[in-house]
Amino acid sequence: MFESKETDFQPAHHGGQNHNSPSSSSSSNSSIHSGDTTESIRPAARPDADDGELERYSTHQSMGPDMPVEPVDSVVDVPDEIYDRLPPHRKLVIVLLLSFCSFLSPVSSTSVLAATPEIAAEYSTTGSIINLVNALYMLFMGLSPMFWGPLSQVYGRRLITLITAVGFLGCSIGTALSPNLGAFFVFRLLTAFEGTSFILVGASVIGDIYRPTERGTATGWFLSGTLVGPALGPFIGGIIVTYTSWRVIFWLQSGLAGVAAVGSYFLLPETIYHMKIDDLVGYTGVAKAKVVLGMISPWRVVRLWEYPNLFLTGLSSASLVWNMYSLLTPIRYVINPRYHLTTPMQGGLFYLAPGCGYLVGTFVGGRYADFVVKKYIKKRGVRIPEDRMYSALPFMGIVIPGCVLIYGWCVEKDVGGIPLTIVVLFLQGVAQLFCFPSLNTYCLDVMPGRGAEVIAGNYAMRYLFACGATAIVLPAINNIGVGWFSTISALFVFAGAVCAYVSIRRGGQWRRSIDAKRKRRATKRILDEKNNDDDDGNPARILGSPADSDSARGNPVTTPRAREKKEEV
User: Fold this and answer.
1) Nearest-angstrom CA–CA distance, 103 and 48
2) CA 188 to each of CA 183, 215, 372, 462: distance values in angstroms, whole numbers, following the listed order
């Protein structure tokens, strides 16, 4: 469905010794270019390559002081044939599985909204306290990508998905059985922390298996689960609390989590083409532990905001998520009294309007993003990652702000009634699916080899703003009214469109500038470390580290401490 090209892929033999292999001869030359200076990732098979996993790739980078363990360029040359390791039908199964998994955490974030009064009554507390738990749920959704992103780069997508799937299942059961408010509080936050990895890893897997010109379409289908979840959650929760206990919401969530865990175990292969842990062959003991801790540090994600294009793109995405949660969170409190609705299920029906918009947008939003990319490739003769975001500009700059303004002021002034409210909620839902595939795929395109960390930073910013929207929307509407609050949201989305446009115009220049700065910083640190070692009289040859094998090959040598400094860059 998403595939435009399929060729046979034959993995190269270890060390590139089989020069007759077609893959060996082409892999170093076939790659995805972005018009920037690149560093190469060349293929090398593992000795146990017949274990059923997809072939992984080694960077074959020097472990001496002339090259860090981690490339400092923002663009890494990725062999084109890695995208042909799976047939199209297998890729489709993976996308559908990941879309289902990514549905779970967002649907859990809003399904409880319809049950807030019932949960507050059972635990003898107020709705404000339960809403605080919901806001902190979004906060933990924002923090968790900073951990899961680097971990999936080091240990792979499959392992992280299986661990978090089991964790999400256990925490969902714990929430359903919570005997008091404290237990409910803890299990809800742990559920958020575990569940966001599905969204992050799913986006990264799409970057692993689809070419840049195909990712928009695949991302559109994947995001249908992420975006439909928040819209369907209150509707499902409203039906459940109308007829039975609120705890059934979390038993249903537990059942879906079990399906996700089993499906991931049987259907999700390891898709990453280069695990960073493979770079540490030869490291032992403390030296290896220190480098690994640097690789999985959440600070790696935050440091990427040093690139202005990534920071501004994060703000663009955050404006959309702010808008989504500021619309969805207060519907029961705003719509029910305005239109004299009396049950949670009746208010929940209004969530179907944006949900249907997200589903309709799935069929066209991602394809339109890929169409725009191909159009600019023909125009320029080269693919520039920022060109993809042109597809989002009219929807972020005009359609969504217009729909939000109409919704807010029509509800405020009681104009248009239920039909107009449903129409504008539907249209803004469709428009969001023209924006998110473009922004998500840009995060995968702009830094090949670090896509999980880039998308982690983007999701972290999104859900931190979602936390803010969830926390302040009801007090704000009570104080200034739904019309003025919708005006603020519309202006924020328009500002997000401006951020995307500035990134399009200046992104390439910013990337080259920051790359040069990072290289100078890396060189200075490495030279300072080398001088310190020389002054201390420490030998370069350290037993139990890769320096032994480097020296034997005649490559420059360095100490484990120097490598730790390189990894910090």
Assistant:
1) 35
2) 8, 32, 40, 19
Q: What is residue 77's three-state secondary structure?
A: strand
Structure tokens at 134: 């919901």
| C-alpha distance from residue 390 to each of 207, 315, 559 (Å) | 20, 16, 46
Q: What is the pLDDT of residue 51?
A: 44
Residue carrying the six token digits 């975006």: 227
Q: For residue 206, what are its two tokens?
A: 């799409």
Give the position of tokens 């693919």: 383
Query: What is the tally of helices (H) and strands (E) in the chain?
Result: 21, 4
Q: What secondary structure does DSSP assign to 326-371, as a single string?
A: HHHTTHHHHHHHHTT--SHHHHHGGGHHHHHHHHHHHHHHHHHHHH
Query: Quick check: 533 pLDDT over 70?
Result: no
Rounded to 5 degrees, what are φ and ψ at 26?
-100, -25
Distance in angstroms (rounded) separating the CA atoms of residues 542 and 176: 53
Task: Please tell me what DSSP assigns to residue 456.
Answer: H
Statement: residue 190 has pLDDT above 90:
yes
Distances 25 to 16, 62, 393 between C-alpha atoms, Å: 9, 21, 41
- Residue holding tokens 């280069």? 274
> Rounded mean pLDDT of the chain?
81
> If you count them, how many residues does the chain have?
569
Mean pLDDT across the stretch 243-268?
A: 96
**Taking residues 50-78, what's their average pLDDT?**
50
Hey, is 31 helix, strand or coil?
strand
Q: Which pLDDT belongs to residue 56?
A: 58
End-to-end CA distance of the chain: 40
Q: Residue with structure tokens 């399904």?
A: 111
- Residue-wise pLDDT tens digits, 141-150: 999 999 999 9
Q: pTM for the complete prediction?
A: 0.76
Instruction: Assign 110 a pLDDT band (cuts: 50, 70, 90).
Output: confident
The runs of H, that is alpha helices, within 381-450 are 393-394, 400-413, 417-446
Burial level of 75, CB count in 10 A (0-12/13-18/19+)? buried
CA distance readout (Å), 446 to 72, 438, 442, 512: 14, 12, 6, 12
Using the predicted structure, report yes or no on whether residue 454 has a pLDDT greater than 60. Answer: yes
pLDDT at 27: 37
